[in-house]
Amino acid sequence: MPCDRNVETQQAISREIKNIQSRCVEAINIVENAPPEMSIAPENVTGKSLCYVEGLRTELQNSNTVISTDDNLLTAQFLCDIKEKTNQMQEVAAFLKGAIYDVDAEINRLNEQIRISQEARARPLPQKQCVQPQHMQKAKERFQLFKSELHSLIHFLFPDKAVPMKELMAHLMAQQLKDESSGYIPITTENYCLIELLRERNIVTVNPYNNMEVKLAL
Q1: Under a CB-based contact definition with an 8 Å cutoff, are residues 92 and 28 in contact?
Q2: Phi, psi of 52 (to 5 degrees)
Q3: pTM for this one?
Q4: d(CA 105, CA 109)
Q5: pLDDT confidence tier of residue 213, bands split at 50, 70 and 90
Q6: What are the residue boundaries of the structural domains of the chain, listed by start?
Q7: Do 188 and 175 touch, CB atoms closer than 8 A?
Q8: What's the angle, vertex CA 53, arms to CA 49 and CA 58, rounded to 5?
């Protein structure tokens, strides 16, 4: 390594010396080939020569000639490259670590979903009971009882409008029981007064997207 460094330095200095020599030869040729009528006083030649030499000295001092002073230059460059690649590998490792963490979290979430599904499947299904005639009879009795109580309540709350109120309530309940219906019925001039009475007692609610529709407030 010291031998290589000395060779590189010697070659750089040789190039600078040759450059200076060529410039000196150029200056001499200019002086020698100057026209005879140009009188050059000796003192002027000496002063100009000193200025020229001083300029060459300054230029030589400010030259950017690279002189290697590191015996382990190649090793240092190699270590610098290794350090840069190591930093890049650390960044890649950090990215992969984050990706692995995300994958683990997703796996844990899926495992939890699988566990919940397995628990749901392991639960015994409710046994279906056959509808017996006595069940139907009991349901009818309860419905008739509810209907009678509802009519009594309507007569009590709206004694002067019991019949149209029962028809309106029947319409509202029929719409509420339909699967394909939203439960709302339109407000018309015929049922407006009745609906206002129901609204005062919070029995019906208005459609928030259409204030001309109401349904039972369940």
Answers
A1: no
A2: -65, -45
A3: 0.36
A4: 6
A5: very high
A6: 2-61, 75-119, 148-216
A7: no
A8: 150
